[in-house]
Amino acid sequence: MFSYLQAENISRRIGDKILFENIILNVNKNDKIALIAVNGAGKSSLLDIIAGIETPDNGTLSIRRGLKTAYLRQYPALNESNSIIDELFSTDSELVRTIKTYEKCIMSGHSDDMQSVLQLMDDLKAWDYEVAVKQILFKLNLTDLNVIIATLSGGQKKRVALAKVLVEEADLLILDEPTNHLDLDMIEWLEDYLIRSNKTILMVTHDRYFLDRVCNVILELSGNEIFRYNGNYEYFLEKKQSREFAEKMNVEKARNLLRTELDWMRRMPKARRHKAKSRIDSFFDLKERAVYKQGEQAININVNISRMGKKILELKNISKSYNDKVLLKDFNYSFNRFEKAGLIGRNGTGKTTLLNIITGLISPDKGTVDKGETVVFGYYRQEGIEFDDEMSVIDAVKSIAETVTLGDGSVLSVTQFMNYFLFPPDKQYTLIRKLSGGEKRRLYLLTVLMKNPNFLILDEPTNDLDILTLNVLEEYLAGFRGCVIIVSHDRYFMDKVVDHIFEYKGDGFIKDFPGNYTQLREREDMLQEQEIIQIRNKSRQEVKPKDEIDEKRAKKSGLTFTEKQEFNKLLAEIEGLEKEKSQIESDLSKGTLSSDDLLTKSKRHGDIMKVLDVKELRWLELNEKND
């Protein structure tokens, strides 16, 4: 295999905590690798070492000469004073710099330097690459490239950083949580983009559908070791289970032998012990192996909930706008007991606004929120982490409660309860500022659940949580005897938890779909396929039958007269649609459109793409026949 990168005996510790020790890692060309581990295990630190940002405590890192890498960090460091276009194209690549100059000429409207730029674009054969860059920016909703980085939200900055990585001419992409802050359409586009890409990938992601479809290698960082699985996520789960079962069997075998050896040690006369030194050494080695060290502890979060009455929550004619942007328009819904709803839609459509209206943090412009007297909200917010970084983990939890009542009525101390959340005693007295981002998220989730809510509202709970915590949270929500509303871009999580979906359709309209996310997409794909068939049939019906004699003459070319007319008509139609598409893409890239015009043109662009797919397919069919 063609090796890009090799890590030999790499170790990293922070203070007295060992993140990983003497691990060996190899990245080959065309590998698409996912790195999996619990929060705080050192995933981001390992990526920083591989990217050359940090140095290991010991070990060597060998990188192929001339290898070009691009690194998307979990919390990207961007130049706040740059505009988006200056940040995107800050690279040594002549090709990328030329595209930047071309884009600036287009945006400024100055044509003085255009001729020389066009010539350089031709010389570097940059046009296909420029189209690819435009597609990336359009899909990530980065249309106004003159905006200053400092004015962007955290999610927008992450999308700029992702676009910057994708437009670089890199051989190896290192991606730390690339799906965070992307809406579902963006995630599915990125998934397809990386599947088709010939780039080698090393990434950390907790999106299991994304991981399963993109990656062909899984690296599990567990117990300070790396385990490699040459397959996707489904294969990893099967082999991981087999490995852990084998480990348990070996431990059980070691325990049985230990009992025999312990009996021998006790019965052996002291005067003879010097004669059996090797066996004594073997005893202590066996004793160490007999202790099963499982890095991933099981969590039980079956917390007791407050009693819920018959009346839950009624939303009546809820409307909300900001300036000219309508986020909600006459939304009505009455919640039932034990209901689990998903809430999806593009970023900025108003999902968090609806949650804030439900919980009373903001008021609607019109309509009423009628909450039952027994309803107790537990609101996990995107920006809800407000711990004092100088407090210890246990002090932060004790400030809420000293004990926690479980669903079976038993009472746990805070210390016992925190153990269930992967905060063992030595971790409980750690200062919060020393926790990883995922560990802080887990702590925040713990503090929300321990308040015994009966109506959970979870706004992006899956961001930064490791797969183990997600699995346990899914199991907890499946048995939760209350109501749940979830905003999440994790499709796997939504499929396992929700029983219906509120989908933002635009202009404040919300559609209720009875099913999970995959069922919703299957329904949409089926309707889209029917639409394409209708367009194709309509296109064929528009061709009028012609004279039989002329049709016979046309058959010499391989096409009937009718088909030849359709063939020529298709050429003109495709050319016209391509021109309209190019014009829309040009308008979108200028960043001068109002939000309404942007939405209208984006929808028209999507419609054109669908029609072009049908017409180009028909043109290819006729062209083959003509040949």
* Proportion of strand residues: 15-25%
Structural class: alpha/beta
**Unreliable stretches, pLDDT < 50, 5 or more residues?**
292-299, 546-557
How many individual β-strands?
Answer: 20
How many strands, which pairing sense, and closed or not: the largest β-sheet? 6 strands, mixed
Radius of gyration computed on alpha carbons: 30 Å
Q: Quick check: average pLDDT?
A: 81
**Number of distinct helices:** 21
Task: Estimate the global geometry from the Cα principal axes.
Answer: globular
Helix content: 40-55%
> What is the annotated CATH architecture of the domain at 313-519?
3-Layer(aba) Sandwich
Distance between the termini: 42 Å
Classified by CATH, the class of the domain at 313-519 is: Alpha Beta
| The named CATH superfamily of the domain at 313-519 | P-loop containing nucleotide triphosphate hydrolases
List the strand order in the largest sheet: 5-6-7-3-8-9
Describe this structure in words.
This protein is of the alpha/beta class and 627 residues long. Among the domains are: 79-169, no CATH class; 240-289; 313-519, Rossmann fold (3-Layer(aba) Sandwich); 542-626. Helix content is 45%, strand content 20%. It has 21 helices and 20 strands. A six-stranded mixed sheet has the order 5-6-7-3-8-9, with helices on both faces. It has a six-stranded mixed sheet with strand order 14-17-18-12-19-20, with helices on both faces. It has a three-stranded antiparallel sheet with strand order 2-1-4, with helices on one face. A hairpin with a 2-residue loop joins strand 8 (217-222) and strand 9. Helix 3 (94-108) runs antiparallel to helix 4 (114-123) and helix 18 (517-541) packs across helix 21 (595-626). Residues 292-299 and 546-557 have low confidence and may be disordered.
